[in-house]
TrEMBL record:
<dbReference type="Pfam" id="PF00881">
    <property type="entry name" value="Nitroreductase"/>
</dbReference>
<dbReference type="InterPro" id="IPR029479">
    <property type="entry name" value="Nitroreductase"/>
</dbReference>
<keyword id="KW-0560">Oxidoreductase</keyword>
<dbReference type="GO" id="GO:0016491">
    <property type="term" value="F:oxidoreductase activity"/>
</dbReference>
<keyword id="KW-0288">FMN</keyword>
<keyword id="KW-0285">Flavoprotein</keyword>
<dbReference type="InterPro" id="IPR050627">
    <property type="entry name" value="Nitroreductase/BluB"/>
</dbReference>
<dbReference type="InterPro" id="IPR000415">
    <property type="entry name" value="Nitroreductase-like"/>
</dbReference>
<feature type="domain" description="Nitroreductase">
    <location>
        <begin position="32"/>
        <end position="200"/>
    </location>
</feature>
<protein>
    <submittedName>
        <fullName>Nitroreductase</fullName>
    </submittedName>
</protein>
Length: 222
C-alpha cells in the first residue's frame, strides 16, 4: 500500500487515563441531557452557530471520503410554510391510512400527530440529503459508497453539535420526503434523508417520560 500522500497526524491528542475517564463520563453526562423537543420558540439563532454545527457534521467519517451529503438550511418563513404544508399532507396520509395499528401504538406515548407547527415556529430547518452518486463537471456519474451509513453518521454528529451548542433539535421524517427535492430545488442524485428542526425549546417545554436502555442491554463485551 502506497502511503506517499500521508501526513503526520499531529492533531491527535493523547490524555492521561484519569483524564480520559473524566472526559468520557462528562461527555456522557452532557449527552444524556439531550432530548428531542417538539415545541420550538421562534427566537432567532445566530447563523454562525448553525454553520459551525454543519462544519462538525462535515468532519464525519464516510465511504472513500466522497462526503455524500448536502445540508439545505432553511430560515425563510415562506419556504418553511411550504415545507410545513407539504409535510402535513404526507403526515395526514400516514396517520390516517399508511401507518399500521402497531406503528400508531408504538408512537402513542410520544404524543405526535399530523400537525407540525414546529416546521414554521423554529428558526431553522436543516434538510439533510444523501447523494446516491456524484455528478462530475462533465455530467458523468461518480460512484459513492456506504451512503446511508455515511449520512447517518454525519447526522448524528450534527445532532450532537447542536446539543453541544445549547440548542434543541427534532429529527422529523415525513415519508415520503420527495417534496423536499422540489421545494429546495435539489438535483435528482440527492434523496432527502431527514429534516432536522433546530432552535430553542419553547419556555417550559415538556418531553415524554421515557428512558434509554442501560448499558447491559445495549452492549456486550466478549
Ligand atoms: N413521521 C411521523 C411519525 C413518527 C414516526 C416515528 I418511528 C417517530 O419516532 C416519531 C414520529 C411524524 O413525524 O409524526
Amino acid at each position: 500500500m502506497s502511503r506517499s500522500n500521508f501526513i503526520p497526524h499531529t492533531d491527535y491528542k493523547r490524555y492521561p487515563v484519569k483524564e480520559m475517564r473524566q472526559r468520557a463520563r462528562s461527555f456522557y453526562n452532557e449527552m444524556q441531557r439531550r432530548r428531542t423537543v417538539r415545541d420550538f420558540s421562534d427566537e432567532d439563532v445566530p447563523r454562525e452557530i448553525i454553520e459551525d454545527c454543519l462544519r462538525t457534521a462535515g468532519t464525519a467519517p464516510n465511504g472513500a471520503n466522497k462526503q455524500p451529503w448536502h445540508f439545505s438550511v432553511v430560515s425563510d418563513p415562506e419556504v418553511q410554510k411550504e415545507i410545513r404544508e407539504a409535510a402535513e399532507e404526507e403526515e395526514r396520509e400516514f396517520y390516517e391510512n399508511r401507518a399500521t395499528d402497531e406503528w400508531l401504538e408504538a408512537l402513542a406515548h410520544l404524543g405526535t400527530d399530523a400537525n407540525k407547527p414546529f416546521l414554521e415556529d423554529a428558526p431553522y430547518l436543516i434538510a439533510i440529503f444523501s447523494k446516491s452518486y456524484g455528478l462530475k463537471d462533465d455530467g458523468e456519474k461518480e460512484t459513492f459508497y456506504y451512503v446511508k451509513e455515511s449520512v447517518g453518521i454525519a447526522t448524528g454528529m450534527l445532532i450532537t453539535a447542536i446539543h453541544n451548542a445549547g440548542l434543541a433539535s427534532l429529527t422529523h421524517t415525513p415519508s415520503p420526503m420527495g417534496f423536499l427535492n422540489d421545494i429546495l430545488e435539489r438535483p435528482k442524485n440527492e434523496r432527502a434523508f431527514l429534516l432536522l428542526v433546530v432552535g430553542y425549546p419553547k419556555d417550559d417545554v415538556s418531553v415524554p417520560d421515557i428512558t434509554k436502555k442501560p448499558l447491559d442491554e445495549i452492549a456486550s463485551f466478549v
